[in-house]
Amino acid sequence: MKPINKKRRRTILLLLLYVAAVTASIFYTVTYFMNNSTERGLLAFERFSEQITYRVSDHLSKYTEQLILLKSELMDRQITDLDDMQNILRRYVNDSALEGVGFVLEDGTARSYTGVTEVFDEPIDVLDVHNYPYTVTLSENSINGQGQLLFRILWDGQGDSSAVAIYSYLPLSTISDMLKDTTYGNAGAFVAIVDHEGNHLWNSSDTLENKEGHNVIQDLEIYDLNNGVTAEEVATRLELQLSGLVTYTAYGQERVLFFEPLGYNYWTLLTITPRSSVLNTENEIKMILVLIAGILAIVVVAVWFIYKNRQMKLALAVAQKESIFKGKFLSNVSHEIRTPLNGISGTLHLLKNCGGDAARQKEYLCRMEDSVQQLTDIVNDVLDMAKIESGSAEVHAERFDLRELCEKTSHVFDAAVQEKEIGLCVDLSGLKNRFYVGDAKKIQQIMTNLLSNAVKFTIHGTVTLSVSDDGDKIRILVRDTGCGMKKEFQEIIFQPFTQEDTTYGRTQTGTGLGMAIISELVQLLNGAISVQSIPDKGTTFTVELPLHADADQNVPAAPSPQQQVDLGGIRILMAEDNAINSMIAEELLTQAGAQVKTVENGRQAVDYFLDPDAEPVDLILMDIRMPVMDGLEAARRIRASDHPRAKDIPILALTANGLEEDNKEILDAGMNKRLSKPLSVSLLYESILSYIKGKER
User: Fold this and answer.
1) CATH number for region 3-175
2) Dist CA 686 CA 456 (whole Å)
3) CA-to-CA distance for 67 and 157, rounded, in angstroms?
4) Of 230, 279, 474, 648, whose CA is between 20 and 30 Å from 241?
């Protein structure tokens, strides 16, 4: 017999633990449902009974309110003429569900609006009218012999001085029809109205037994009540107009009784149903069986999954990690490019409003160039940022001017701080050197993100960028006087997709990835980052990076002014569908002396190049994404044509694509070189000259 290896033994142990956990869950679930079945059933029956009570009470209130409105109309109009008053009462009866209306006189006589005296089974108690201004009683009209709901309200208005109340009535069937079809569970529900002493005034049906003329308290005294409840306790609650629930046994059947005050004449509505309707154990058992079957099915599927797909779990985890990374990365792109775009937009605004000050215009243009360069760097570094998240990013160390880098980075926010009327200070007094060796782009990205957040969350005061040299490392401090952060949020601020939920913070947009990216960049550069913040006081971020000063601290000589580029005599065919890009490129080329023919798509470019009557061209600038025909297809057709220069005419691609596979596709289509957007003017001129004058073939 072969010994069971450790991996299989561990798998079997996990399965046994899983089965044990599932078994315990099933046992707990069954126990829970059985223990709570009674409580849930009784609570549901209470809610059902309360709905019936509210329904009846609302109907009684509606008719009482109609009498109150009638009384208000009679008193507001100050009608004293009996004929006019009778006409109003007649119209009222015709427009409502009430069957009769009139006045109650001091001797208890009910005189209808028609002048006829109406007689009910019991005289109307005038004293009761004075004690209870709004009442409703069950009565029977001696003329038609029908049960009535008799409403009365105290009358103290004009007209007959002997009138003490207004009365009205409607058939008892108005209420009873609403309740006769009441159903609950399998056996239905018996509904009745009793007075405060427990006397039955009205029954909905004979579902259980006929209770007419009975007293609920007396009935309960001969039944077996459960849970130690007594009939005397029920009588007390009826007297005090309190609700309650009682279970009892009558005629060998367990029943549930719920009583709820109606709010009229000390009446209470009773709802009675067999206990089997409340405690539907059959459905409970079915539900438990379905639950058990579902859990067992999950166990079977889980066992199969663990046994057959253990290796797939690792692949799934890798795929999920890549998916999360892609989502984070794409969401962050817009966040990252907003800062330089804002610098460009703000500087343009300043440029338009600086008047004729040439010095300021030059300064603003320089700052705009810095922002454009930063935006270009962000776009070019998109793949590097992706590598940071995936753990495959590289650090490119080179000599750079740290002082100049700090100043350029701070200038990006000049427009933003001026608009918000806050200060932006740069303190470089702690720098012992000027030139260092390191990854300047990543350091600038760290400072840019920190300054962006500081400016965004500062309403009043100052944002300070302080950089100092501590021997073998530099320390970058970004301090603001903004809204600050709670201690709890400081502990998770460097986690992805975290933003503090404050009144001020909710007004700020963002992806919640900025701090996470800063943390990753700092770790990539083998540095450390920390934060100190006090709510409503401000925040300070401290970044420490290992950075060595360059041995050569000499400032290089200023580059000599570039000679004017001369593209005179060069004829260029340019295919570009974007009007702004086309205008800029055409103007740059024309200023340098070139002759430019511009078309809007690849089809037009092919047609022009192959047209024997068209002016010959020396070079083609071809956009990649265009309508009708893209640049790749256009280049392939030009190279495949029988034109004398089809094979050797230089075709330079103009594209915003930055992936290596895009560059390969461009070269495979027959193009000579890729020029990335936004265009570098010097590179554009240099490339044209190199191909036209034979410097590069």
Assistant:
1) 3.30.450.20
2) 41
3) 14
4) 279
CATH number among 3.30.40.230, 3.40.980.10, 3.40.50.2300, 3.40.1190.20, domain 571-694: 3.40.50.2300
Flag whether pLDDT at 654 surpasses 60. yes
Task: Spell out the domain ranges in the chain.
Answer: 3-175, 180-279, 282-386, 396-501+509-549, 571-694
**What CA–CA distance (Å, rounded) separates 261 from 244?**
10
Pair of tokens at residue 474 = 């530099």
Q: What is the rounded CA–CA span in Å between residue 464 and residue 444?
A: 15
Of 339, 402, 400, the residue nearest 375 (C-alpha): 339
Contact assessment for residue 158 and residue 93, using Cβ atoms and an 8 Å cutoff = no
* Distance of alpha carbon 90 from alpha carbon 454, whole angstroms: 78
Give me the CATH topology for the region 282-386. Helix Hairpins (1.10.287)
Confirm whether 180-279 and 571-694 share one CATH topology: no
Task: Give the whole-angstrom CA distance, residue 438 versus residue 444.
Answer: 11
For residues 605 and 613, what is the distance between their CA atoms, to the nearest angstrom? 14
The answer to whether the CB of 42 falls within 8 A of the CB of 49 is no
Nearest to 194 by CA among 33, 389, 56: 56
Q: pLDDT tens across 311-359, in order?
A: 666 666 656 665 665 565 555 566 567 667 767 777 776 777 677 777 7
DSSP three-state, residue 52: helix
Report the SS3 class of residue 105.
strand
pLDDT at 227: 83
Token pair recorded at residue 604 = 């037009």
Q: Which fold has domain 396-501+509-549?
A: Heat Shock Protein 90 (3.30.565)
Query: CA of 50: how far to CAs of 191, 417, 644, in Å?
Result: 12, 64, 96
Burial call 182-191: b when 16+ CB within 10 Å, e when fewer: bebbebbbbb
Q: The pTM is what?
A: 0.40
List C-alpha distances in Å: 437 to 208, 373, 540. 96, 21, 26
Close Cβ partners of 594 (under 8 Å, ≥ 6 residues apart): 567, 568, 570, 571, 572, 688
Most confident of 10-19, 480-489, 494-503, 630-639: 630-639
- Mean pLDDT within 149-157: 76
Distance CA 592, CA 619 (A): 15
Q: Are strands 253-261 and 200-203 parallel, antiparallel or unpaired?
A: unpaired
Alpha-carbon distances, residue 486 vs 298, 499, 534, 535, 551 (angstroms): 43, 11, 7, 6, 44
CA 48, CA 40: separation in Å to the nearest integer? 12
Measured CA distances, 42 to 47, 55, 56, 144, 230 (Å): 9, 20, 21, 42, 19
Tell me which DSSP letter residue 78 carries. T
Secondary structure class of 470 (helix, strand, coil): coil
The DSSP element (H or E) to which 83 belongs, if any, is helix 82-94
